[in-house]
Amino acid sequence: MAMACLSRGLRSLSLLPQTPVLSSQTRATLRPAISVQLPLPAIVSHGTPLQLCRGFITTASLDQNRRFWKQREKYTIKPIGMKKTGGRDHTGKVRTHGIGGGHKQRYRWVDFQRLRFEAGKEGQVFEEKVVEVRYDPCRSADIALVAGGNRKRWLIATENMQVGDIIKTSGVIGRMAVSANEGDSYPLGALPVGTLVNNLELQPGTGSVFIRAAGTSGLLLRKVNGTAIVQLPSKRQVQVAETCMVTVGRISNIDHNQRIIGKAGRNRWLGIRPSSGLWQRKGGWAGRKIKPLPPMKSYVNLPSISAN
Amino acid sequence: MIPEARQRLRSGATLLNDLRLFSVHPRRQLNVSRPLLGRAAAPRPRPRERVEIPGLEPITYGARSHYVPGLAKPVYPRWEMGHKDPRFYRSPPHQQMALYKEKACYLFNQRTSILEGVRQALWLTKTKQTTGLPSQLLSLAESSANQIADQDERVMNVIKHARFWEMTEMEPPQENYCSTLLHSLLQLCSSLQASHPVLGKRMLAEKYSLTASWNRGEDLFQVRGQNGLLLSSTTPLPPLADRQEVEETENHVLETFYPVSPTIDLQTTHLYSPDRMTTGFCGDYPYPHAHTLYFPEGVDRRNRLRPPQLRAKMIMFCFANALARAHTLYGAAPQTLDQPVCVQAVATDGQNLQLAFFQLNTTDLQHHHGVKNQVSTGRAGRLIDRRHVL
Fold this sequence. Notes:
Number of strands of chain B: 11
Oligomer: heterodimer
Helix content of chain A: under 10%
Distance between the termini of chain B: 68 Å
Structural class of chain B: alpha/beta
Largest sheet of chain B: 7 strands, mixed
Number of strands of chain A: 15
């Protein structure tokens, strides 16, 4: 059967009546005097047509090691099958060591843009009900399935989120600061200074990037004319626009950093491969460092003041 | 390799793909779906965006019939076959189809699993629920005239047949034992025909398709498709709730579940025929009145409904059958019915039996006030105690 396919394909590769493409060696051995530019009928008139083999690809097509399972445009709450990378990049070589194996996981698409309106209901404050809070194999925090209006989505669960809770999302910044409940989401400008926040956006409307790990929380330090300064869990301070959305409270699964792995096998279940056993002299990067906090990072694009 | 040869021999690569199919690859799992394994097809690269500047004609390399860097890609009109060929039919976009409507319609079919379960089904069908079957039905079941000879033993045999005697495995798949159980129990009930001749006036139908549509509030809803087994009869089911109870339902307020909308989990479509109602049978069918619906659960392995969603499905399809029947009897105008239309339903997943008796009192479903329909639900206990199986 395989041979039938191969021969069927090769039969379709007819050399007549196109100009034959010859390798330089055959050119030299077969017709040393005649140039390649002559059309085929001239060759045929000399006798039988020459059976020339052009050659064909014998290797399979090389796939790029790309993460195609991620290319889905429509949002879904159904878990998506994931392909593990093993720390390899698109060229197929190891880029990050120590990754590989582990239990099979399915990806639940978490909606990090909390202030996402349904079609036709833009600009309105809306509420959602928590349907389920469950473990997510792809992150340290738990995730919550929330339903509101006509849609359901996955969100990062906060510390005391229970099934049946109603969580509110509002994009309005009022004059008075709102007394926020845990799990609700407001712009930074609407919250009182000193609130514990998580799921911080850097640019308004792009989705949350910071403070998403289990048990973490940031602190809203100051609000300065149109911007807000938040302290991240690493004690670094960032300045973002006050219209960036945050969720109030701590992230769920607060005892995550106190878990005991217990054995090497459990690390392997998590997909962590052992590090190289070769003793390597530690350089200047090792050891405890006591240094001042890096300066505050500003993500606000303020208009530059030009001299003109 | 010479570039011209590589281009002409690209077809050779597809041959080798064929060859790969026949080689034994240890990591391939041919019986698991591709999305589940994380293997998605490589997405096509998006074509470059064309910039249309009105008044300027783009210079393309179409005239030279080969690519020239710097010139635009020519756009040709799609080639149309001169004749109609059903193998190569291209459907037009939704907006150009004949049934397209601006307003969306919400569909319920046999695979729909609604989030709020029974509460949502009650809101959609404007129904008041009573837990526990009416006493008339229970007394019918308990009266000795309606019992089969050796009933307990025969029912035990039916359960054993469905569960143990079908296959050599310890646990047969749910789709097998559920449908076997249902059909065997139905056959057992029909053995009473000698003493109850009215059973001869009933007919069982499988895989019939139903359509019912109604307006509720500002939205249009439709129930469509196959639902289950239908036992239909020549005479209608008598209503169990009398006029006074029906009028008392006017005071009942339907439960809402803010912030979830009642249309959640329903399929949205813009292509539909409004006011479409079919019972699934032609007008001269000798058994026009729907008597009982039977829902075997677990037959569709990918779409198993939990008990609340199964009860919701029962209520929705009972309502749809009753509404379609009322449409043929009393017309399309929304009204309160003098003679309520009643339909019963039994759903089973092989372990538990869910029972429902639905009474359609009104077809005026647009408004939230007024007379409501009624449903009584009950359930029978577990058929198999797994602790004693092994």
